[in-house]
Amino acid sequence: MSAVRLLSGTRMSLERIQVGMSVILEFTIEGEAFELGRVLARPAPHGYAELERVIPMQDALMPFLWVTGVDADAFEKSVREQPSVKTICALDHVEGSTLYHIEWATQPADILAALADANAVVLEAAGNGVWQFRVRFPDHDKLSTFHNAIIEEHIPIHIGRTYTLSEPTATGHPLGLTNDQREALVLALNWGYFASPSETSLDDIADELGISRQAVSKRIRRGNETVLRKTLLSSAKDFT
C-alpha cells in the first residue's frame, strides 16, 4: 500500500496563531525518523497503520493503532522482538484491519515524547513510509514548546499548516471538516456511495485516494459526524 501523501499548501508561520486559543498543527514525518514508525516499518514495509486518538497521560504514551495489510503472526512476532517494545496486544479485528495496543519498554525520546511534553492531543496520525499527523495544542505556548523541542532534538518534520478552530481554514470549509474528510465525502457523494443501493464501495474510494479501506471509512464517518453536529445540533438550539 502506498504511503500517505504529503500535505500540500503554503507553509504558515507559527507566530500567526493567537495566544490563549487551542491550535491545530498538521505535519508529515518520515517513518524512519521516529521510533514507532521504525518499529512498524520493519515487519510491515507494505502495511498501513493509523493511530487511534492519543491523549498523553503524564510520562506514559502507549499507542493504540489500526494496522492493515500485514501477516498478523509475523508482524506481532517482529514487533515484540524490538528492544523498545515491552508488549503488543491484538484487541480487535474489523474488515481486514487489526487494532493493536503497544506498551513501550522505554519511552521513545522523539516526536511522541515532544507531543506528550507539550500536552498535545493526537487527533489523526497515519502512514507507513511517510506519516501524516494532525494534533491539537492547548495554546500557542504549548505549540512553541513542541516547536522548540523538535528543533533541539533535530526531529525532521514538514509543517503543512497551523490554524485555530475559530478561524477560517485556507480552503474556507465552514463546517470544520479537514481537507481529507472533505475529499473523501465529496468523492463518496459524487460516486453514489450514499445512494440506495450504493453505486460504489469503500474499496473503490480507498483505491482512488490511495489509502486503506479502514482509513477512508473513518474519514467518512468522522466527516459525517462533524457535518451533522454543525447542522443538526446548532439548529436544534432554535427550538429549545
Which features does this protein show?
globular; 240 residues; 8 strands; 33% helix; single chain; eight-stranded antiparallel beta sheet; alpha+beta
Structure characterization notes:
It is globular, with a radius of gyration of 19 Å. It is 33% helix and 24% strand. Helix 3 runs antiparallel to helix 4 (140-152), helix 5 (179-190) packs across helix 7 (213-236) and helix 6 packs across helix 7 (213-236). With 240 residues, the chain is of the alpha+beta class. The N and C termini lie far apart (49 Å). The longest helix has 24 residues, at 213-236. It has an 8-stranded antiparallel β-sheet with strand order 4-5-3-2-6-7-1-8. The model is unreliable at 1-20, 168-173 and 234-240 (pLDDT under 50).
